[in-house]
Amino acid sequence: MLSASGVEYRFIRLKKRAVSVNEVVKYAEDEVKEYEICKTVLLRGASGRLYAVMLLGMRKVDLAKVAQIVKEKVSLASLSELEKLGLEPGAICPLTIDVELLVDEEVFTRQKVNFSSGDPHYGLEVSPKDLEKLVEFRRARLSSP
């Protein structure tokens, strides 16, 4: 997928399973910059529809901002909803998740970003400008400090 799209990338191998930003920095075999780490959070709309939000790891999803974009109230998805999709916390890949993806504007302020590959022991690093070559998404201000 990455090579076929002509996107430069780097695999980030983790010595141990990492769920938080601090764990990614601690367990990465190569240098990883804290401010480039992203997370993908799964949300459930009042309609039952699921959404994924990709944002910088040290920021919080602003549920009210997301609700304005998707035109319905949203809340964090439950662990059982993640499991039904074959997902686990800390290992949600924004490129392969089969729900609507929203990407926070702050992601595009970085030269590079890294995020889960879907395997809790590997991350991926790409330029944020290459995300549109890899996956469809809506871009908006969706986070708060």
Explain this structure.
By secondary structure, this protein is α+β, with helices and mostly antiparallel strands. The chain has a single domain, classed as YbaK/aminoacyl-tRNA synthetase-associated domain (YbaK protein). It is 17% helix and 30% strand. The strands form 3 sheets. Strands 5-2-3-6-9 form a 5-stranded mixed sheet. Strand 2 (38-45) and strand 3 form a beta hairpin. It is globular and about 40 Å long. The mean pLDDT is 96.
Percent of residues in helices: 10-25%
Low-confidence segments = none
If you consult CATH, what is the topology?
Answer: YbaK protein
Assign the CATH architecture. Alpha-Beta Complex
Count up the domains: 1
Brief summary:
The chain is α+β, with helices and mostly antiparallel strands and 145 residues long. It has helices at residues 21-27, 63-70, 79-84, 131-134; strands at 10-13, 38-45, 50-56, 60-61, 74-76, 100-104, 113-116, 122-126, 138-140, 143-144.
Layout of secondary structure:
Layout: E1 10-13, H1 21-27, E2 38-45, E3 50-56, E4 60-61, H2 63-70, E5 74-76, H3 79-84, E6 100-104, E7 113-116, E8 122-126, H4 131-134, E9 138-140, E10 143-144
Parallel strand pairs: 3-6, 6-9
Antiparallel strand pairs: 1-8, 2-3, 2-5, 4-10, 7-8
